[in-house]
């Protein structure tokens, strides 16, 4: 599914904006994150090191804002009836993984962010950390390392021996 979404964005942006901006934008999106950015970078034949740095920055850019403001944003959005289902699903996703993260603490959050599967990653890791009231000082480095590891795994899959 991620490949289809990535292909959609690659085609949408092709010849309209630079490839580097395309992979940066894709890396900003929840669900796609660094996984999608690295796939797009390979499709667009962007140099590995440049792609990795751009995708990493793109994936990490929203994380501090999620950690700092997601509770306030959710509280504001709850004023609107049509947002309740969406917010309930997001909170349920965070709650579903709460026990794993609490049981293994920093290692649980790191593993959750680092394993590049749909529904895991920096965005969801930041949401879980915020819902668990983890301080930015503790959560941000763990999430940053997890995104880095996920990027390395995706690099092996897209640029390395397991090319997809």
Summarize the structure.
The chain has helices at 2-13, 19-28, 33-43, 48-60, 63-77, 84-96, 98-114, 122-131, 136-158.
User: Rg to the nearest angstrom?
Assistant: 16 Å
Helix/strand-derived category reads mainly alpha
Proportion of β residues?
under 5%
Number of strands: 0
Largest sheet: none
Shape summary? globular
What's the overall average pLDDT, rounded?
Answer: 89
Q: Low-confidence runs (pLDDT<50, min 5 residues)?
A: none
Tell me the count of domains: 2
Give the helix level as a range of percent. over 70%
Alpha-carbon distance between the two ends? 13 Å
Tally the helices. Answer: 9
Order of helices and strands: HHHHHHHHH
Keywords:
164 residues; mainly alpha; globular
Question: Strands, helices and their partners?
Answer:
Layout: H1 2-13, H2 19-28, H3 33-43, H4 48-60, H5 63-77, H6 84-96, H7 98-114, H8 122-131, H9 136-158
Helix pairs in contact: 1-2, 1-3, 2-3, 2-4, 3-4, 3-9, 4-9, 5-8, 5-9, 6-8, 7-8, 7-9, 8-9
């Amino acid at each position: 599914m991620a490949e289809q979404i990535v292909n959609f964005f690659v085609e949408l942006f092709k010849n309209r904006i630079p490839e580097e901006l395309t992979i940066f934008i894709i890396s900003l999106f929840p669900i796609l994150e660094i996984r999608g950015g690295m796939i797009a970078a390979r499709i667009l034949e962007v140099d590995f090191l440049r792609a990795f740095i751009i995708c990493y920055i793109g994936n990490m850019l929203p994380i501090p804002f999620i950690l700092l403001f997601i509770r306030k944003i959710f509280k504001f959005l709850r004023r609107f009836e049509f947002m309740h289902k969406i917010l309930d699903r997001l909170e349920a996703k965070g709650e579903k993984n709460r026990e794993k993260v609490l049981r293994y603490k920093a290692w649980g959050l790191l593993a959750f962010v680092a394993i590049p599967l749909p529904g895991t990653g920096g965005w969801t890791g930041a949401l879980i950390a915020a819902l668990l009231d983890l301080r930015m000082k503790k959560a941000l480095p763990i999430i940053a390392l997890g995104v880095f590891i996920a990027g390395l795994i995706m690099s092996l899959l897209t640029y390395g021996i397991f090319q997809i």
